[in-house]
Amino acid sequence: MSEEIRVPIASDADTIVARQRGREAALRLGFSRTDATFVATAISEIARNITVHAGQGEIIIRGLSEEGRDGLVVIARDEGPGIRDVAAVMRQEYASEAGLGIGLWGARRLMDEIEVASQPGEGTTVTMKKWCGFDEVGRLLDDRRPSDPTPGS
Amino acid sequence: MRVATGELRQACPCGYLIASIQSALSDTEVVELRDSLLVEVARHRSRGVIVDVAALDVIDSFVSRSLSTVARTNRLRGAKTVVVGIRPEVAVAMSHFGLGLDAVDTALDLEAGLELLDR
Ligand SMILES: Nc1ncnc2c1ncn2[C@@H]1O[C@H](COP(=O)(O)OP(=O)(O)O)[C@@H](O)[C@H]1O
Ligand SMILES: [Mg+2]
């Protein structure tokens, strides 16, 4: 997948489109269904941050090939108010489900790499990467799908 | 009655409410679903509600928090909330994320959910 997918984000309905595109791209690139779900869930969080904190922006998804590894990169960009203290937001090692700050924290756990670049008044860019092939649990689940023909049964 | 791209029905004769979500939900629709669940459970004086989420291919922090709110609020009114049908890959993603569906009972499917409520 060398082409780039761009999804404008202006409302919460656009978030559904973005995470569907992300899932499809991940599956095309050879990710397991579980890893594709990780990608879609992370996109859901950062797209929500655009609509809630910045109003509008866009999500860009493309395939990655670096140092012999294949993967996918998701870039979320907006020109909203920005984040005053990115380090403080990212330092959060524990976030309660009820509290603030769980979105980026969750995205970091679901993806392999995440980088947040932001200046107050100049918007925010979140770059998240995930690499193919580290997903043991996903492979197990995919192997066990009832729709898959099982040898000998 | 219909709720946010889903369907809410009175499960006769057991007196439980069953909400089956039919498609992916926007945050606005999640809020609508949450509010109608709370209103309908009160209106029907239900002792239990089952939310079928098998149609959801993503359960993120917002959906998770909303389901927890429904469960906690219902519990204060003496009603149980059971979420059924979480897809396997969604369950793995939620557990990596750290989303535990606080206060929510879960069951594999509708049948298991009804059994749980009958207990
Ligand atoms: N795109 C953005 N624009 C401005 N601020 C943002 C953006 N994304 C995140 N933030 C800030 O970072 C904080 C943490 O974000 P997040 O982890 O998603 O938690 P939450 O959105 O639940 O507060 C937010 O409360 C907000 O202040
Ligand atoms: Mg957020």
Q: What sort of overall outline of chain A do the alpha carbons produce when their principal axes are compared?
A: globular
Supply Rg of chain B.
Answer: 13 Å
Count of extended strands of chain B: 6
CATH class of chain B: Alpha Beta
In spatial order, strands of the major sheet of chain B run 1-2-3-4-5-6
Topology, number of strands of chain A: 5
Order of helices and strands of chain A: EHHEEHHEEH
Major sheet of chain A: size, sense and barrel closure? 5 strands, antiparallel
Q: Percent range for helical residues of chain B?
A: 40-55%
Amino- and carboxy-terminal Cα gap of chain A: 36 Å
Task: Describe this protein's structure.
The complex is a heterodimer of chains A (153) and B (119). Chain A is α+β, with helices and mostly antiparallel strands and 153 residues long. Chain A has a single domain (4-133), classed as Histidine kinase-like ATPase, C-terminal domain (Heat Shock Protein 90, 2-Layer Sandwich), CATH 3.30.565. Helix content of chain A is 41%, strand content 26%. Chain A has a five-stranded antiparallel sheet, covered by helices on one side. In chain A, helix 1 (12-28) packs antiparallel against helix 2 (33-54). Chain B is α/β, with parallel strands linked by helices. Chain B has a single domain, classed as 2-Layer Sandwich (Transcription Regulator spoIIAA), CATH 3.30.750.24. Chain B starts with a strand and ends with a helix. The model of chain B has no long low-confidence stretch (mean pLDDT 90). The interface between A and B is medium-sized, with 31 and 26 residues.
Per-chain topology:
The complex is a heterodimer of chains A (153) and B (119).
Chain A lengths: L3 E6 L2 H17 L4 H22 L2 E10 L2 E10 L7 H6 L10 H9 L2 E6 L5 E8 L4 H8 L10
Helix pairs in contact in A: 1-2, 2-4
Chain B lengths: L1 E2 L2 E6 L4 E6 L5 H17 L4 E5 L8 H16 L3 E5 L3 H10 L7 E3 L2 H9 L1
Parallel strand pairs in B: 3-4, 4-5, 5-6
Antiparallel strand pairs in B: 1-2, 2-3
Helix pairs in contact in B: 1-2
Bound molecules: adenosine-5'-diphosphate and magnesium ion.
